[in-house]
Amino acid sequence: MSEIFATTGTIAAIATAVVPQQGSVGIVRVSGSQAIAIAQILFHAPGRQVWESHRILYGYIRHPKTQTLVDEALLLIMQAPRSYTREDVVEFHCHGGIMAVQQVLQLCLENGARLAQPGEFTLRAFLNGRLDLTQAEGIADLVGARSPQAAQSALAGLQGKLAHPIRQLRANCLDILAEIEARIDFEEDLPPLDRKAIISEIDRIAAEITNLLATKDKGELLRTGLKVAIVGRPNVGKSSLLNAWSRSDRAIVTDLPGTTRDVVESQLVVGGIPVQVLDTAGIRETTDQVEKIGVERSRRAASAADLVLLTIDASAGWTAGDGEIYEQVQHRPLILVINKIDLVSADIKNILLSKIPNFQWQIFTAAAQNQGIEDLETAILELVQAGKVQAADMDLAINQRQAAALTKAKISLEQVQHTIVQQLPLDFWTIDLRDAIHALGEITGEEVTESVLDRIFSKFCIGK
């Protein structure tokens, strides 16, 4: 069996980030039948404090043999089944940093626990019926959320907003299967099967699956974010745009062309979507070897970006250099940013517009004056909505594994309909219908394999 399935015994792990000289509290989590016994060996609670479930004790952690003081700490007791794993769980709340939590963890391992595998606490919660797979994945998404909207989507999964419709669809398929199998076993005692009603119900189930599948792209955006590259000729204001947008001085800004020699990154959130902004070196032909490297990196960043902000200088208008850069990035989703608009008059602006190629998305900015940033964010969200997000239910977003299972279920249901139309025997109907039921069960964990669990929980951090 996979190592992730070695879920026997008592496990322990550090449940908080361990950073030198940072973090006021560090937590060591222990789960299993020996959790409380280990706590009683290591933790001394002075006075008449009562050791009972869901009570916090104050005291000291000591080495059981030497009685050396390890830390002054709190102990949280959670007896089964009222715990995260539905096993006995204790948590040592120690001082933050490195040494205290590492020493406490080592003492737990020396006194009957073993080090937890990645995600093993959550795996035990799943195996013990505390969570289904969609909720477990919601926990992982919540831990890794990079924006408030991503966190809300993860919480929706954690609260069962995905599991409930999936279970309902699976129950509907089971009802259809029961109707069909009843006719196979008791054909003479029951009225004929209503084929039109069966097809109509399968149509409805397939339509609901399609609606859920439409949230996949939105889910990918929330989890991985949007990579945006600012590209353009030297000295068009790319670095000023990054600084104005990120409200920082991440990029050096001067009047000299070619100041930016490497890709500068900044992490932002736009409309709830994490955005990684890349300020690139100005793209031009140059004999400077260092600048050549920067230009090549700019081209690579643009080719790998989800969205390109092609930035031009309004006072210079559309130049041959702008056209050459456009030829290189036109295959990517693109917004034209006409910067330094504060340097041109209204008349010149109209002449400028008449000479610029027609872009579906274009905005005016004066980055040095912090103008046009809201228009830029609005344009990005419009482009995302138009090209990547098509679902109406923005509170729910499926991941790739869930999308693959839903797609499998939808294909199986379509095959059932084809079988009915071909007027094949009822036994043939049940084959693909069972496949659809199995695929839907994979999403919540009602139908699950070791490899699926291994793939899901191995991505968790140790201690979760």
Structure in words:
With 464 residues, this protein is α/β, with parallel strands linked by helices. The protein is built from 16 helices and 13 strands. It has a 7-stranded mixed β-sheet with strand order 3-4-5-6-2-1-7. α11 (320-329) links the parallel β11 (307-313) and β12 (334-339). The longest helix has 23 residues, at 163-185. It is flat and about 80 Å long. The two termini are 21 Å apart.
Please describe the structure with a list of short key phrases separated by commas or semicolons.
464 residues, alpha/beta, 17% strand, disordered N terminus
Q: Measured on Cα atoms, how large is the radius of gyration?
A: 29 Å
Cα shape: flat
Helix content: 40-55%
Oligomer: single chain
Q: Ranges with pLDDT <50 over ≥5 residues? A: 1-5, 250-262, 388-394
Strand order of the largest sheet: 3-4-5-6-2-1-7
Portion of residues in beta strands equals: 15-25%
Biggest sheet layout: 7 strands, mixed
Q: Quick check: average pLDDT?
A: 82
**Total count of helical runs of at least 4 residues:** 16
Distance between the termini: 21 Å
Structural class: alpha/beta
Strand tally, please? 13
Taken in chain order, the helices and strands follow as EEHEEEEHEHHHHHHEHEEHEHEHEHHHH
